[in-house]
Design brief:
The chain has 194 residues and is mainly α. The chain has helices at residues 3-27, 46-55, 57-72, 80-102, 106-136, 142-152, 159-193, and strands at 30-31, 40-41. Strands 1-2 form a two-stranded antiparallel sheet.
């Protein structure tokens, strides 16, 4: 068997495995007390970052896609949560994978994760403001979403303040947590998956 075929098969198997792990991690989430309860913290973007670091941004996006397709089978958000997770997770893994691919050092990894976290945060803010919240308000009125959010963060009184005071800091926190976990895990498993 040619080395390229073995590498392609190995990459495909590991990407599928990482996608499955990501789907499981998406079910293990927790509310963060200072944020509205619909913003849940999980580590499901960690496997996508591992894939993006190992094989590039496309592997990270593919991992995000499979994870969210699996999760959509049991969704309670009419697919809006999965779409949001896919967009935001891809916005994290694509720039991180691109930067790390060019600079495979610890410093390169930290820069990649910082840029990925900022990209994820900006994407989450714009997507929530212009698309996700307006679309989700077809299922739950925006006034109720804002009221729920205001109970956790009193400064929230409209969609703009919801994005500014909840979505932006939550995604910064999630990016930092997932990035720290990636730094701890990637070097330990990179020899196994590459």
């Amino acid at each position: 068997m040619e080395a390229t075929t073995v590498n392609s098969t190995r990459r495909m198997v590991w990407t599928a495995l990482l996608s499955a792990v990501a789907a499981v991690l998406m079910y293990i989430d927790m509310a963060v007390p200072v944020f509205p309860r619909f913003l849940k913290l999980d580590l499901s973007d960690l496997p996508a970052l591992v894939a993006a670091f190992a094989w590039g941004p496309a592997a990270g996006v593919f991992t995000e896609l499979i994870k969210n397709l699996i999760h959509s089978l049991t969704t309670s958000t009419a697919g809006v949560g999965e779409l949001a997770n896919f967009l935001v997770g891809s916005a994290l893994s694509v720039p991180a994978g691109m930067i790390y691919r060019r600079n495979r050092t610890r410093k390169g990894a930290l820069a990649a994760l910082a840029v990925g976290t900022l990209s994820m945060t900006v994407t989450a803010a714009l997507a929530n403001y212009f698309f996700l919240l307006p679309f989700y308000s077809n299922f739950l009125p925006l006034e109720k979403i804002i009221a729920m959010s205001s109970a956790a963060i009193p400064a929230i009184h409209d969609m703009g303040t919801l994005v500014l005071f909840a979505v932006v800091p939550f995604n910064l926190l999630k990016g930092v947590v997932v990035s720290l976990a990636t730094v701890q895990l990637y070097k330990r498993i990179s020899t196994l998956i590459r």
